[in-house]
User: Fold this.
Amino acid sequence: MQPLDDQQQAARDWFEKLRDRICAAFEAIEREAGSDASFDYTSWKREDASAPDGNGGGGTRGTMKGKVFEKVGVNVSTVGGEFSPEFAPSIPGAEEDPRFFATGISLVAHMANPHVPAVHMNTRFLTTTKRWFGGGADLNPAIPYEDDTEAFHARLRAACAAHDATYYDKFKKWADDYFYLPHRQVHRGVGGIFYDRLDAAGELFEPQFAFTRDVGEAFLDIFPQIVRKRMDNDWSEEDMGALLDFRGRYVEFNLLYDRGTLFGLKTGGNVDAILMSLPPLARWQ
Assistant:
C-alpha cells in the first residue's frame, strides 16, 4: 500500500485511539457486572494484486463475549488498492482512476439482557480522486424505551449542532430512510444519524474531521450510560423471544442492504470482520 499522507494518517490514528477507548469503556462495564471478559484482538492483512508488494493494508478485529455484552465487535481497518472494474463506477472519483484508500472504525454490540439495546456505530475516511467522511450511529432496541431513545438522539443532536444547524435533521432522516427493511416495512431500530460522502477536499478536511471525531465522542458518552441504566433489569422468556425475533430483522438488513457489508466484500476485506455484526443467536418464525 502506498505511504499515507498527513490526512490519511491523522484519520487512521484517531480511529485506532477511539477503538482503544471504546473497548476500555466496555470492559469497565463488564467489571462492574462481576465479569472478567476482555477483548480478543486478531489482526488481518489484505492482499492486493494491484500493489507492487501485494500489500493492500489490513486491520484488527476486536471481539468480546461477556456477561453484559453477549457479543461485541470493534474493528479498525486501513486498506488501499484498486477497485474492480465492475465496482469502481459506483464510487465517487473512481470512475476513471480506480485507486482508493479507506480507513475507519466499525462497531456492533449485541447485548445479553433484552432490555439493553443493541447498537451500531462506524466512521470512516475514504479517498479516491475525491475525499470524504461517512458514518453515524444508531440504536437498536428489541424492547424500546422512550427515554433511552430521547437521550441517544439528544446527544447526537448536540454533536451535530456544534458544527452545522442543518446536520441533525438531515442526517437523522438519512438514518431513518437507510435503516429500513422495505420487504418487512419496518425500521431496523429507533434510528440515530447516518451520513456519507461528506466532502473533505482541501480546507474542508479539518471541519469534517472534527465533526466525525465528535460523532465518536458522542457515542462513547451516551451508550455506556444507557447500558448501565438497563443491564440489571429483570427479563422474561417473552422478553428473550422479542430479542431473538428482533435480531432476525437485524440480520436481514445487514445481509441485504448494508453498504459496509457490500464495500468490505467487494474490496477483499476480512470476512470474519465484515460479518462480526451478526448476532450469536437469532430466530425466524
